[in-house]
Amino acid sequence: MPNESAVDAALRVLRHQDRSTTQVRERLEASGYASGELDAALETLVRTGVLDDHRFAALRASSLSERGAGDIRIRHELRRAGVPAEVAAEALELLEPEDERARRIVARRGPGAKTARYLHGKGFSEEAAAAVAYRVGDELG
Q: Which of 42, 100, 112, 124 could form a disulfide with 119 if both were Cys (CB 3.0 to 4.6 A apart)?
């Protein structure tokens, strides 16, 4: 049995970075908290708004988007964090459309196959990567 309460341990986990409910649960389980105490602590933190998967997903999606990630990558990262699919979908809806984000990257890097591969590697859909990379090239040429 750990020395501090599960709520205190969860607050320590959340001190420097917002996390999903699943991430906090996994951290506390690894620290040896009993299931009942863990469930009660998480319920308290969710009820008081300290732990909020919607807020976490929106902030994480925005951060990833600002760093040039496409929707596929963002959805994958949210899934890895244990965010429910419907919450992840809501977070993606809050972002600028994927093709607009791709268009900005193409404007910076230039159109062509190399940029299309870059976009695909950053988690943009094949359709967005190919269409934007080549369409912008047609507009420029």
A: 124
- Tell whether 32 is covered by a domain: yes
CA distance 110 to 139: 12
pLDDT at 130 over 90: no
**What's the predicted TM-score (pTM) here?**
0.86
Residue 131: closest CA among 103, 92, 93, 108: 103
Alpha helices, DSSP H only, in 67-112?
A: 71-80, 85-93, 98-109
pLDDT digits (tens, 9 = 90+) for 8-48: 999 999 999 999 999 999 999 999 999 999 999 999 999 99
* H helix count then E strand count, the chain: 9, 0
**Cα-Cα end-to-end distance for the chain:** 68
Distance CA 116, CA 97 (A): 17
Residue type at 72? I
Range of the domain at 108: 97-141
**How many folded domains does the chain comprise?**
3
Rg of the chain, C-alpha, whole Å: 19
